[in-house]
Amino acid sequence: MASRDPSRGETAVSTLAGQGLSVEHVILDVTDDDSIIAAAKVVEEKNGHIDVLVNNAGIIVKHLNDRSRRQAWKDTFDTNVFGVAPVTDAFIPLLKKSVDPAPRAVFGSSDLGRLETKYDPQHQHFKRPVLVYRCSKTALHMLALAERSVEGGPKNAVRLAVLGKDGETGQISGDEGILP
Ligand SMILES: NC(=O)c1ccc[n+]([C@@H]2O[C@H](COP(=O)([O-])OP(=O)(O)OC[C@H]3O[C@@H](n4cnc5c(N)ncnc54)[C@H](OP(=O)(O)O)[C@@H]3O)[C@@H](O)[C@H]2O)c1
């Protein structure tokens, strides 16, 4: 389990260990290429491979505060899109070393990024604001599909993470199943 903040990461590991789960922490800031490469190296040295990569880190800028609008776009895309591509690139070699019959990368996206939600004025998300976030998740969909993998919320991410070799791929899905 990766996090950019060492103490928050260790706290999370302790909490999970208290629930009987075996979790190790690695430092990873998805906006920092050196951090990404270092994290992949640590995992490779400790474990040699991974079976599943879950790209979960994501931000939403709800208030600009002292940020310019351009900076809000940059910050959002830096984490939600630009960070995902190099993280996936860095960890794919470790996925390729997996002996699992279905190693996979999962991309944590959002319904708000699906174009369908803006085609239909009756759609529950049609009028939802957070345009910058929405655009970043739409871009993530193209990236994820180009990686031939899938996305969805936490429950769906777990389902996808343990799919067998006959499981779906190259699809966008949510808790309700495969989506247009
Ligand atoms: N919550 C929802 O309703 C919802 C719905 C659909 C999709 N999603 C997506 O699900 C994912 C998780 O969302 P969440 O609701 O659990 O949000 P969250 O509680 O804010 O968690 C996001 C996590 O991403 C981490 N993060 C942010 N920037 C990072 C960076 N540069 N490097 C490494 N880690 C970074 C944060 O770490 P820190 O603790 O250091 O800030 C935080 O732990 C996101 O991709 C989000 O877009 C959420």
From TrEMBL:
UniProt superkingdom: Eukaryota
Keywords in alphabetical order: NADP, Oxidoreductase
SUPFAM superfamilies: NAD(P)-binding Rossmann-fold domains
UniProt similarity note: Belongs to the short-chain dehydrogenases/reductases (SDR) family.
GO molecular function terms attached to this record: oxidoreductase activity
Name of the protein described by the UniProt record: Dehydrogenases with different specificities (Related to short-chain alcohol dehydrogenases)
InterPro entries for this protein: NAD(P)-bd_dom_sf, SDR_fam
